[in-house]
Structure formats: structure tokens, C-alpha cells
């Protein structure tokens, strides 16, 4: 099928699947007399944290369910009538409640209260907050997260419909949610907003995915909860909750890949104290090394990388008081494609015209200039105190230190010095009060303070790309949520005030700026269980984002991106209204999620190629400038799965997005093209352990981006199709678990270029890659 009709094909496929599923459920519903469903969520009474592995029993017919990692449960095929529900979870008070099931699905929330910590044999949970929101949420955990191990955060999240990456080469990728990225997407590392030099396309998130046992994507505007940088969505990287009783778990990951000859190791140990009740800890470390990436016909010079990371946490929890300390360290050295830094204008034009690099070396692990070296420290301390059964006070402080060095190809002694050397210090304070009433109301009121100082380290020998600056942001917010039967409603509002003071020398002249920004944001959302099989959620929210310092003041060569960037100090704040709607169908065999959204952004800031070039002693570089225009982004995400039998399953996910420049009546650059990923999996194991051997075959279809801006350095590349295959095996060794994974991406070594890769002008993307992943838990 030609790629120009891909969008039409995806739309038809999505609605066809939805139609078939609806028809199937309609027939099933009418074929059964007892077709009612009880759905719900189990939460901890004191902090609204989901309860995993709670037992929910219906006493009258002895049927039940177990809650999943998000606290959700479903019991189907019930007759109309009155039932007694028993909810049980180790170390918590049992719940007995009578419910009435009539002609519709009942959505019930149970809040379970912990018993005394001093009871013998009681396992008391740790405190890891979970965001309860009516907007579209998807999480990676369990087997899906295990298959993503060894990948960057951006690459891992491509498993979520509506999430792609904006990359610089094949080793640097940052997540894109519904067309937005960088400072419009907030990343939370164990509840602390990650504050690094993330404004560049080649500035990947400074976080190690190995520290997480769950990664959650919120696709709506979440500025009320988290502040201006969450206008495009939120990514939550959550470590495991700390144990509060005697417990020990050690986990080791060993990974290797053929492309880049990558080796990766990670280990973690979690423990709880037997002598000090309520005390738990966790330590984790990882290391990664890779050499030159290979496209199907050649190696890409200077594309190696090395990385080593560490994290640790310790916590103490009693009846009313809980305290947690956390520290993480991230360090990476990344080579930049050598031919992205060309020597003269004719070379630049020639490499863009040819679409492949001049240098095609043999394999090497060497990392030379141009390159970047990044380190990031994050520390937090958090405490909570239960004022009573309904109110909890929380205090969280975070400190971060980020150092980014970018090296260019220079002559003599200057070659050993970074051309960009930035140091960013960030302090955050969050004070908030949660309430949780048994009358189905819960909410939060809080204040948030952010102080930031960025400095250029002297000695680079070049004028700084961005100035030194100090930033202060203060926010105050209120959110309320109501749950009753099949209905959930939530609303919130927030006010932020931000000041930015910047200064730098250009030659002998001191340039200073003192700017301030303020705005309100608000949202309202709801979720309703339409039937035993269908639920619908809708969320309407306003958001805003003040311009970042690079958008305001960039004036020179951005070495890591191999481009000259020009800012505008007169840029206005972005202001948006986003409406997200999600329809979900779930039966015993099928799951379909359809998300539609529209996002109107006034004064949208974007980096636009000017078509000009800048020639210096260090080479010839394309010139980009920051511009503003009103934008309209809209599209939909479709994901689903179907179980044909106990052994055979199928899945699909796809996304379509449009991003119009309303001022120029054309399209914005660097917006993901239409795509669909589908596949089938077959269980090879014995009948009593089918999931111990699983083989999956998948096909990724990506269309050509036909909605290009009026000017680009080169036309958008053709669409492409990739075949991937994987095999997962679980082996039980006494009480321990051993997992083996074998993955082959781009099975047929197809040569392709991804439109969202900024180096597509110079090289093709990665060729075939075979990965072996070993995991041992004991």
C-alpha cells in the first residue's frame, strides 16, 4: 500500500476494529442474562496510593479478583442483585460493604486503612504517591518494562501510543507527546521535576530508566499539578516503593547488542529492617558502553557513548510519620556524528544532497570531538505527617546540580576545552496538604517554589550561547476530586509568577535583562462508566509556558546541534487550551483505547531553519531562529489488543497528528508523521505455564511526512516499514526468577530515515540490531 494513503488506512483500520469490537460486545451482552460488571479501584486510606494485589471477594457467589499495579479490578458476568463485598490486603483492616447492582456497570472505590505497625507479621506498605487524573494515562511496568531495559527513556516510551522521539542521531532521543517536547514535557524522577539543560534537541533527559519499576505517561496538560513546564504532558519515572518490614530482593540485568556492540549492566538491592520496624532502603547502579552505530551500508563515525549511573534511597515510616531520602547520579559521554560538523559550504551542501556521511570508518569505541559530557546530581528529602485519618501534610525538598560540556573540533590546545560549559543549580520546595474524606471527596492544596541559577564556566574561548541567569518561580494550586458510582469528576486551578534575570558580556559590552511572567491555569475533567464494557473520560485544561532562556537569548553556535541559533528577547508566553477525550472498551478478550485531542496554542515558539549558513574557522553551519505563531495541534491515538486463544494474541497501536501554523497557513517543522505498530504473539510453553515462552512478531509502518514547512534543508524522507521479532523465556529457579529476552529490531536491515531525527540530513538511521537481555531476581 502506498504511504501517501497511510493516514486513511490507519483511520479505517482503527474504526473497523472498534466497530467489530462493539458488535462483538453487543452480541455477547445479549447472549447472556447475567452481564453486569463491577469495576473499581483499591486505594490506601491515608495517601490515595493504589493498592496492588488486594483481594476483592463477592461473598454470595465466591467469585473475585485481585487488584493490579494501579489498584484497578474488574469482576464480570454478574446478575442484578445485592452483594456483599469483602476487600482484604495484608496488614490492613478488612472492608465489608453491601452494594446494589442494577442495569449498569458499578464503579466503586474502596479505601483500605492500615492496621497498627506493631502487629506481628504485618507487611506495611511504603509511600509512593500516585497521580489520580481523568486525562489519558498509560504506564509501562512488569514485562513491558522488562522488554524495554537497556533503551533510553525516549526509546522506551515509543511503546506508548501517541509518544515518539525527537532525536539527534541514534544515541540521543527525547520523548515527544502529541507533538510537544523539551521544556513542554515535565519528567519526574521519584517525584522531583527533572531540571537539566533540556532545551536543545540533542539534550536527552538525564535519567537512568533502570532505577524505575514503573514509567507513567500523562498525555494531557498538567500545569495545575506540576507547573508551566507540564503543558504538553508528564512522564513519571517511579522507583519501587521502599519496604517497611524485613525483606530482601536483588536484581541483576545483563544486556548486549550487536549494533554498536553495546554492553549494559545494572544491579539493584532492596531491603527492609527486622530490628527497626518501618525502615527500608534501596541501592542501584548501572553502566553502559557502545561504539559506532552502523547503518545498513556503513558505520557512523564518532557515534559511541559511555554511561554510568547510581541511585539510592532510604525511608522510615510509622503510624503517622514518614520520611524518605533519595539520591541519584547520572553521567554520560556521547559522541556526535563527525560529518555533522562540515568544513565549508560546499561540503555542507554536498553531504545534504548525498544524504550520507563522507567518513565511513571501521568500527571503534573511540569518542572524540565533537562530543558532549553531561553529569547530573539529584537529591531529595520528603516527609509526610498524618494530622488525622482525613488530612495529611507533605513537605518535599529537592536539589539538583547539572553540568553540560559540549566539545567542538578546534585547533591546538582549544580542542581539549569545551566550547560550551554550563552549570545549573536548582532548588525546589513543595508544601501541600492532602485531604481524603469518606464521603468520596479528596483533593490537595499546595505551594511550589523553584529557584534556579545557571552559569557559564569561563575558559571556553567563545561567547556563551546563552547568558548566565537566575530564575525564581512561585506557584499556588488547589485540586478537588469527587467519586460516586460510575462517575469521577475533578477540577483544579493554579497561579504562577516567574522572574528571570540574565546577564552576559558580548565582546566588551555587558548585556542585562530583567523579565517577569505570570498566569493562571485551570482544568476540569470527568470519567464515566457508560456500560459494562465502555468507559469515557474527558479533560479540558488551560496551560501556559514562559519562554526559556535559550529561546530568548541564544546568539551563536550551538556546538552539540551543529547549528547557529538565534533567540528573541521579545517572545511572549505560550498559552494553550487542550481538550482530551478517551473512549475505552474492555471485555474478556479485547481492549481498545481511542484518544482524540485538540490543542490550540497562542504564541507557540518553534525553531525554524532560515536557509542561511554561517561560516567560521570551525566549519559551516545552518542557521536557525526562534519564531512565534498561533498553532493548532490535533489528532488521535489508537491502541488495542485481542486474545484469539490462550496462546495467540494480537495488538496494534497508531497515532495521527496535525500541527498547523495558523499565522502562515502552513505546517510546523519536526512534527511526527503518521505511524502504526502492530504484531502478534504466540505462547510456546506447556499448558500450565504458557507465558513462560513467548514469541512476538511485529511490523512498524511510518508514513512520509507530507505536511512540511515552506522551507527545509532537505525534503522529508520516504516512509518506511520495519519488521521486528522477539522471544521471551521465564525460568523458575527455586524461589528465584530468571528471564531471557532476545530481540531483533529491523530484521531485514532496511535502510531508512526518520523525519524526527535532526541528523537525517547527513545519515541514515540504525540498521539491524540483535539484543540479548538477561535478568535474574533473587
UniProtKB/TrEMBL annotation:
Residue ranges constituting the TonB-dependent receptor plug domain according to the UniProt record: 132-234
TonB-dependent receptor-like beta-barrel domain: residues covered: 365-747
Protein topology in the membrane: Multi-pass membrane protein
UniProt KW keywords: Cell outer membrane, Membrane, Receptor, TonB box, Transmembrane, Transmembrane beta strand, Transport
Isomerase keyword on record: no
Any Gene Ontology CC annotation: cell outer membrane
Keyword Transferase: no
Entries under InterPro entries matching the protein: Beta-barrel_TonB (IPR000531), Beta-barrel_TonB_sf (IPR036942), CarboxyPept-like_regulatory (IPR008969), Plug_dom (IPR012910), Plug_dom_sf (IPR037066), TonB-dep_rcpt-like (IPR039426)
Similarity remark: Belongs to the TonB-dependent receptor family.
Protein name: Iron complex outermembrane receptor protein
Organism: Algoriphagus boseongensis
Source lineage: Bacteria, Pseudomonadati, Bacteroidota, Cytophagia, Cytophagales
Amino acid at each position: 500500500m502506498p504511504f501517501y494513503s497511510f493516514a486513511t488506512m490507519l483511520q479505517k483500520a482503527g474504526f473497523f476494529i472498534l466497530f467489530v469490537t462493539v458488535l462483538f460486545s453487543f452480541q455477547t451482552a445479549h447472549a447472556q442474562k447475567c452481564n453486569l460488571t463491577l469495576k473499581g479501584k483499591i486505594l490506601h486510606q491515608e495517601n490515595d496510593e493504589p493498592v496492588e494485589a488486594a483481594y476483592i471477594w463477592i461473598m454470595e457467589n465466591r467469585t473475585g479478583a485481585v487488584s493490579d499495579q494501579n489498584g484497578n479490578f474488574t469482576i464480570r458476568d454478574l446478575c442484578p442483585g445485592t452483594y456483599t463485598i469483602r476487600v482484604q490486603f495484608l496488614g490492613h483492616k478488612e472492608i465489608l460493604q453491601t452494594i446494589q447492582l442494577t442495569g449498569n456497570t458499578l464503579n466503586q472505590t474502596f479505601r483500605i486503612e492500615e492496621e497498627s505497625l506493631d502487629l506481628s507479621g504485618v507487611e506495611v506498605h511504603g509511600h509512593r504517591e500516585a497521580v489520580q487524573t481523568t486525562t489519558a494515562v498509560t504506564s509501562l511496568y512488569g514485562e513491558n518494562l522488562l522488554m524495554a531495559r537497556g533503551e533510553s527513556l525516549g526509546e522506551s516510551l515509543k511503546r506508548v501510543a501517541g509518544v515518539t522521539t525527537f532525536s539527534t542521531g541514534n544515541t540521543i532521543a527525547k520523548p515527544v507527546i502529541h507533538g510537544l517536547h523539551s521544556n513542554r514535557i515535565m519528567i519526574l524522577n521519584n517525584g522531583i521535576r527533572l531540571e537539566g539543560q533540556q532545551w536543545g534537541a540533542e539534550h536527552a533527559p538525564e535519567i537512568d530508566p533502570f532505577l524505575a519499576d514503573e514509567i507513567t505517561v500523562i498525555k494531557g496538560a498538567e500545569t495545575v499539578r506540576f507547573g508551566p513546564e507540564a503543558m504538553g504532558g508528564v512522564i513519571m519515572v517511579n522507583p519501587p516503593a521502599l519496604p517497611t518490614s524485613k525483606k530482601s530482593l536483588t536484581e541483576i540485568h545483563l544486556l548486549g547488542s550487536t549494533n554498536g556492540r553495546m554492553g549494559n549492566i545494572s544491579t539493584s538491592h532492596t531491603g527492609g529492617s527486622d530490628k527497626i520496624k518501618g525502615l527500608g532502603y534501596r541501592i542501584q547502579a548501572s553502566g553502559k558502553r557502545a561504539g559506532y552505530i552502523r547503518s545498513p551500508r556503513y558505520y557512523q563515525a564518532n557515534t559511541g557513548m559511555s554511561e554510568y549511573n547510581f541511585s539510592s534511597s532510604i525511608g522510615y515510616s510509622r503510624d503517622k510519620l514518614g520520611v524518605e531520602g533519595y539520591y541519584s547520579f547520572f553521567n554520560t559521554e556521547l559522541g556526535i556524528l563527525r560529518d555533522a560538523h562540515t568544513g565549508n559550504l560546499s561540503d555542507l551542501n554536498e553531504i545534504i544532497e548525498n544524504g550520507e556521511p563522507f567518513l565511513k570508518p571501521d568500527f571503534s569505541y573511540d569518542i572524540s570531538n565533537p562530543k558532549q559530557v553531561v553529569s547530573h546530581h539529584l537529591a531529595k528529602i520528603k516527609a509526610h505527617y498524618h494530622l488525622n485519618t482525613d488530612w495529611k501534610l507533605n513537605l518535599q525538598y529537592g536539589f539538583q546540580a547539572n553540568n553540560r560540556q559540549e566539545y567542538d573540533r578546534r585547533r591546538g590546545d582549544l580542542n581539549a576545552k569545551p566550547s560550551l560549559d554550563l552549570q545549573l543549580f536548582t532548588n525546589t520546595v513543595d508544601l501541600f496538604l492532602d485531604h481524603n474524606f469518606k464521603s468520596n471527596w479528596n483533593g490537595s492544596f499546595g505551594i511550589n517554589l523553584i529557584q534556579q541559577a545557571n552559569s557559564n564556566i569561563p575558559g571556553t574561548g567563545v561567547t556563551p550561547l546563552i547568558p548566565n541567569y537566575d530564575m525564581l518561580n512561585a506557584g499556588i494550586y488547589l485540586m478537588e476530586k469527587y467519586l460516586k458510582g460510575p462517575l469521577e469528576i475533578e477540577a483544579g486551578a493554579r497561579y504562577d509568577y516567574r522572574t528571570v534575570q540574565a546577564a552576559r558580556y558580548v565582546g566588551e559590552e555587558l548585556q542585562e535583562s530583567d523579565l517577569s511572567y505570570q498566569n493562571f491555569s485551570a482544568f476540569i475533567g470527568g470519567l464515566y462508566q457508560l456500560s459494562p464494557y465502555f468507559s469515557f473520560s474527558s479533560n479540558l485544561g488551560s496551560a501556559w509556558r514562559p519562554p526559556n532562556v535559550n529561546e530568548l537569548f541564544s546568539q551563536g553556535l550551538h556546538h552539540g546541534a551543529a547549528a547557529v541559533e538565534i533567540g528573541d528577547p521579545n517572545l511572549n508566553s505560550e498559552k494553550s487550551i487542550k481538550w482530551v477525550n478517551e473512549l475505552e472498551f474492555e471485555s474478556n478478550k479485547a481492549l481498545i483505547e481511542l484518544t482524540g485531542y485538540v490543542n490550540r496554542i497562542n504564541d507557540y515558539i518553534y525553531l525554524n531553519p532560515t536557509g542561511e549558513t554561517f561560516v567560521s574557522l570551525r566549519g559551516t553551519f545552518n542557521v536557525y531562529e526562534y519564531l512565534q505563531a498561533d498553532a493548532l495541534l490535533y489528532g488521535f491515538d489508537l491502541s488495542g489488543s485481542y486474545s484469539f486463544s490462550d496462546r495467540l494474541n494480537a495488538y496494534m497501536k497508531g497515532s495521527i497528528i496535525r500541527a498547523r501554523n495558523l499565522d502562515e497557513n502552513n505546517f510546523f517543522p519536526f512534527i511526527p508523521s503518521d505511524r502504526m505498530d502492530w504484531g502478534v504473539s504466540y505462547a510456546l510453553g506447556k499448558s500450565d505455564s504458557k507465558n513462560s515462552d513467548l514469541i512476538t512478531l511485529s511490523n512498524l509502518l511510518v508514513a512520509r511526512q507530507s505536511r512540511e514547512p515552506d522551507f527545509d534543508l532537505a525534503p522529508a524522507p520516504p516512509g518506511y516499514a520495519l519488521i521486528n521479532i522477539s522471544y521471551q523465556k521465564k525460568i523458575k529457579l527455586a524461589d528465584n526468577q530468571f528471564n531471557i529476552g532476545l530481540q531483533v529490531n529491523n530484521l531485514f536491515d532496511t535502510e531508512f530515515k526518520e523525519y524526527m531525527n535532526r541528523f537525517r540530513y547527513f545519515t541514515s538511521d540504525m540498521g539491524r540490531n540483535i539484543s540479548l537481555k538477561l535478568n535474574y531476581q533473587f
